[in-house]
Amino acid sequence: MKIPLLDLRGQYQQIKGEIKAAVNSVLESGQYILGEQVEKLEKEIASYCGVDYAVGVASGTDALLLSLKALEIKPGDEVILPTFTFFATAGVISHLGAIPAFVDIDPISYNIAPEKIKEKITDQTRAIIPVHLFGQPAEMDKIMETAADYNLKVVEDACQAIGAKYQGIQVGNFGNAAALSFFPSKNLGAYGDGGMVLTNDKLLAEKIKRLRLHGGERKYYHQEIGYNSRLDAIQAAILRVKLEYLTEWTDNRQRVAVTYNSAFKENKLDGMVSLPAKKIRDSTHVFHQYVIRTGDRDRLKLFLEKNGVSTGIYYPLPLHLQKCFKGLGYQEGELPVAEKICKQVLALPIDPGLNDEEISYIVKLFASKMR
Ligand SMILES: *Cc1c(COP(=O)(O)O)cnc(C)c1O
């Protein structure tokens, strides 16, 4: 059996007719950047996520960058984030001349450890970026409490977590702003790059709309120095088609995760493999990735590969130990939970279309190697 980590062609086959019609209507319309399709998508995503405003931008990375810029993060400011996340969360901080302040993670949720945030707060600290990693919300009540105590802005990195709920409330409603990514492999993926800022703050939404268009409200008049960071109409039209399926696809991801969990338990492997665990009651996990942990990760990965099952490692090296951040002076051993977990994580195929037989095949491979 051959099971890829992710193959987007299957999903495309399912919705091909609608996608072609949507793309064609944009081609015929003559409006290729922003415009009606983008405005409609912004309204639909805002409604899906239960926020007041959504602003389409060129990528998830830009959604983070423009949010920080709009919140007036400046050179020399410090911004707190987990060390265990995709690079972009940190890269945008450095691009503004600000300084990433890396915090260790919780060993169960793999999200930023809220109790370790305070140790990193200095007079220069201006913001926190909690990441809802793999689709599980970070502990927003504690994070927001700390942010309020120290008067810090909060930008949620919700790039992997569209639609996830924390204590019944959708991610994107906690911080000053939140970033979504429409990178093709994300839960809601375009056929190219795309992203969106979510916010309940009208002035912030307006500011981000200016920043994505070189800082001008109307053409050729600029009140601030912005960027070229627009969502294009073809991607918006594609995303509008896919948004109709997102709830179904998310349900299927959750079903796949439940099936994995019970298969690991039935094979009595849950002692040897740490399964994804829910940290917070009343929160949902949208399983952008299904990530397990095992001490024998590299050998298992190779064995699975040889038997046709592709897996992924998100992420092999925490950000505080990346070469590009050497100048920040972090030492090995400083953020031990993330350092250890990076050596153990393994992402299994989580395609919403995965069937029980395929899941059972994957788990049986684990069983044959581990016992
Ligand atoms: C994908 C991702 C981003 C960046 O999104 P792009 O659209 O690829 O720029 C940022 N943060 C996290 C956690 C992500 O997973």
TrEMBL record:
Extent of the signal sequence: none
Family matches, as InterPro entries: DegT/StrS_aminotransferase (IPR000653), PyrdxlP-dep_Trfase (IPR015424), PyrdxlP-dep_Trfase_major (IPR015421), PyrdxlP-dep_Trfase_small (IPR015422)
Residue positions where N6-(pyridoxal phosphate)lysine is found in the record: K186
Any GO BP annotation: polysaccharide biosynthetic process
Catalytic residues as annotated in Swiss-Prot or TrEMBL: K186 (proton acceptor)
Keywords: Pyridoxal phosphate
Source organism, top-level taxon: Bacteria
This protein's name: Transcriptional regulator
PANTHER family xrefs: 3-OXO-GLUCOSE-6-PHOSPHATE:GLUTAMATE AMINOTRANSFERASE, TRANSAMINASE
Organism: Iocasia fonsfrigidae
Pfam families linked: DegT_DnrJ_EryC1
Family named by the database record: Belongs to the DegT/DnrJ/EryC1 family.
GO MF term (any one): transaminase activity
Residues in coiled coil: none
